[in-house]
Amino acid sequence: MISQLKLNDSQIFEKRLLEKEKLRLAQYQAALSAPSNSQPNRNRVRRASFGFR
């Protein structure tokens, strides 16, 4: 019974990971298609790289 529970946990984890990847891909495609959406992302990346210097 415990092993079955572990299997279910891992399946749930994989499913959650897959959903997260799908969401990330959708956001990336939306940013590519719409310049207004990609602008804040570019600023965020610039801020991050600026902090490393």
Describe what you observe in this structure.
The protein is mostly helical and 53 residues long. The chain has one domain. The chain is 94% helix and 0% strand. It is built from 2 helices and no strands. The protein has helices at 2-33, 35-52. The longest helix is centred in the first third of the chain and has 32 residues, at 2-33. It starts with a helix and ends with a helix. The model has no long low-confidence stretch (mean pLDDT 74).
List the topology elements.
Blueprint: H1 2-33, H2 35-52
Spans with pLDDT under 50 lasting ≥5 residues?
A: none
Q: What does the largest sheet look like?
A: none
Rounded mean pLDDT score = 74
Overall tally of structural domains: 1
Shape descriptor reads: rod-shaped
User: Tally of extended strands?
Assistant: 0
Order of helices and strands: HH
Nearest-angstrom radius of gyration?
18 Å
In which range does the helix fraction lie? over 70%
Helices, by number, come to: 2
Structural class: mainly alpha
Please state roughly what percent of the residues sit in beta strands, choosing from under 5%, 5-15%, 15-25%, 25-35%, 35-45% or over 45%.
under 5%
Alpha-carbon distance between the two ends: 53 Å
